[in-house]
Amino acid sequence: MIQNLIFAVPLILGAVMILSGLIIRNRPRGKIRRGISTEALIIDFAEKTAYMKKIPYKAVSPVVEFSTPDGRKINAVYPYFINQDFISFKRGDTIKICYDKKNTNRFHIENDGSKSNLSFILLFSGLFMIVADVIMFLKY
After folding, report:
1. Which pairs with CB-CB distance under 8 Å and at least 24 residues apart come from 111-117?
2. Contact residues for 129 (Cβ-Cβ < 8 A; gap 6+)
3. What letter does residue 100 receive in the DSSP assignment?
4. What residues have CB less than 8 Å from 113, skipping those under 6 apart?
5. Distance separating the N- and C-terminal Cα atoms of the chain
6. Average pLDDT per run of 10 along the chain, which is 140 residues long?
7. Rg of the Cα trace of the chain?
8. Which ranges of the chain would DSSP assign to H, the alpha helix?
9. Do residues 50 and 57 make contact, with C-beta atoms less than 8 angstroms apart?
10. Other CB atoms closer than 10 Å to residue 4's CB: what's the count?
11. pLDDT, tens only, 90-119
12. Dist CA 140 CA 137 (whole Å)
């Protein structure tokens, strides 16, 4: 009885970790519920000076232009700034965004690389826990 419990607890915890990792895997930062997906054109970059350990660096954020279903043209700045050395977009690129229908200036970029590493950690740890538990069960 106790041996089955000792085997079951890590197995259940591993399964919960894997399920949690799968649930949060595709949840980007700043996701908008019931938003409208569309294509947007990067027309410019907003710039600001940011600091890391008191060392300044230039941070940028794309300024996009997109059209609403009623034909209005919207220009909006992405709220998250990143180091200019790590930006993966350039002027003229077309990207997929999801914007808030009530506030068209609020949007997020689909597949912008902001997904949390927590999902990877949960998936890997849960899988490792299950495999280690099965190996221990088979060996002893």
Report:
1. 111/28, 112/28, 112/80, 113/88, 114/28, 114/29, 114/30, 114/80, 115/25, 115/26, 115/27, 115/28, 115/29, 116/24, 116/27, 116/29
2. 10, 11, 13, 14, 17
3. -
4. 88
5. 15
6. 81 92 70 83 93 90 92 90 85 91 84 68 92 87
7. 22
8. 2-24, 118-139
9. yes
10. 9
11. 899 999 998 888 888 888 887 665 556 778
12. 5
The number of helices, as runs of H, and strands, as runs of E, in the chain is 2, 6
Apex 58 CA angle, 40 and 103, nearest 5 = 35
**pLDDT score for 30:** 58
This model's pTM is above 0.85: no
**Degrees to nearest 5, angle at CA 37 with 35 and 38:** 140
